[in-house]
Amino acid sequence: MQHVTRPLEAQSDSASSAHADLPAAAPRDAAGPARSTTWDTHKLVLVVDDEPGILDSLSRIFRRESLDVLTASDAAAGLEILRKQRVSVLLTDLMMPRTTGMDLLKAAKTVAPETEVVLMTAYGTVETAVAAMKEGAYDFVTKPLKRAHVVRIVKNALEKQSLVIENRALRAQLAERRRRAIIGTSLAWRRTMDVAVQAAASEATVLLLGESGTGKELLARTIHENSPRASRPFVPINCAAIPESILEAELFGYEKGAFTGATQRREGRFEAANGGTLLLDEIGDMSRHVQVKLLRVLQEGEIERLGGAGRAIPIDIRLIASTNVDLGRAVREGRFREDLYYRLNVVPIHVPPLRDRREDIPLLAQHFIQLYAEKNGKSIAGCTRRALELLGSHSWPGNVRELENAIERAVVLSRESAIGEDDLPRDLATAAASAALAGKGLGIATSLGGPGAPSLSFAIGTPLAEIEMQVILETLRQTRGDKRLAAKLLGIATRTIYRRLETTADSDAEAEAGRDADDADQEAEPDVEDLEDVEDVEIDADSRARRP
Q1: Is 361:354 a contact under the CB 8 Å cutoff?
Q2: For the whole model, what pTM was predicted?
Q3: 367 vs 364: CA distance, rounded Å
Q4: pLDDT digit string (tens) for 335-390?
Q5: In this structure, which topology does domain 2-168 adopt according to CATH?
Q6: Closest Cα partner for 490 from 432, 440, 431, 446?
Q7: Using CA of residue 65, residue 66, residue 67, residue 72, what is the dihedral sign?
Q8: Band of the pLDDT at 512, cuts 50, 70, 90?
Q9: Coil, strand or helix at 358
Q10: Buried/exposed code over 162-181 (b: 16+ C-beta within 10 A; e: otherwise)
Q11: Does domain 187-255+266-352 have CATH number 3.40.50.300?
């Protein structure tokens, strides 16, 4: 049975005599409210005891200390509350019918491990206290209970629980900041960061320009965190991810009844970011209708909710916009308002693609390895030299996002202490092999080699079979014997390579057999070469004799 916190009933004589140190309970108000549905989860205490007098007395004590209290008369009811509520401290009797307080302690540490547990009993012994501490109890109190002692123990447990929660939140923040760390030492990235740091200290509108996956949102967060508004909200919204019919309501909010389904008033992203920074990501995909309203916000510093009947709401925001679209070209083509473009283009920052900052690839790779190795519980120190070569030679059309995905995949699949080339996506090896062939003058004009690649030259009259074989063998050498990859580069079936290699092997075997037969014949015949040498000597002697 679950009890709720209410004004206290008068205790029985036995209960009053057994717990003389607890204050007498006041009469219960029959019309008292049921359990409150709003709890401060950081100060919620659950008391479990099979004696109603103790439950009521402790409830009154903790309520006077401005604590929210739930009570239960047995362990089963207490465990059910733990499953449904976030309890800070559990104060439970040790000796109860059916299920003991020690059993409840063990169950509580399984169901709600963050809850601090305090045991109370009239049969306290050193052995019992030690056993409770081993099971994870915070403390142990004996009956008859002293009011000041119980309050002190529970408040200490609440303080510890609050510190645990705060520590967990700080660790989560640190992990998030580590995940979003700005990494890069290349010249291109340092130039970008120099402009970003200078812009951060101002109130100017910033326009981030760059390809998808280059880290524009990360850079926007960095600008916000280094600005005077760092303590205020940072609110991002992806304009391309939200349908046009919904984007306006998301940005400006709406009043109740503004449209079908608007059952209550709702604030938009502009109001949510008031005092802080609003990031309009992919602003190049915003419709011209919303562009007009955005221009008014930037000019007047106020918004109007949908259905707001002309009531203007002043706002104070720092605006950062980002896009992978060429806005200048969009203006010329009539897809983006020219006046809005000039309003946004106050401090343009070009975010370089990863291919223009290859010096940062090893640093970024190591960062992602540490991040995902820790996340997946794996011990991976870094990359092999060959893996780093493949990472450095790839063009990374998806930029940092593609690199992060490749490293996460490699960490998950790797069985070694370092990521090897086999752990990386096959696309990297394919691109590297294609580049190597081009560097060797063996660029093959296939879908992978591309037009304009250098070609392999042969002397006129070279048999076609020999040309095919040389190309196949050189391609296999570049792909380190990977026949499937070689076939893909050459645009032929894998079985064709096997067939050509088998044919060559048979020809080599026949040639070797022929050479063995010739050697046997030569052993039975005179050494013709020696005789020819003798004849040459005689001719030379005759020619010298005829000289004047």
Answers
A1: yes
A2: 0.54
A3: 5
A4: 999 999 999 999 999 999 999 999 999 999 999 999 999 899 999 989 999 899 88
A5: Rossmann fold (3.40.50)
A6: 446
A7: positive
A8: low
A9: helix
A10: eeeeeeeeeeeeeeeeeeee
A11: yes
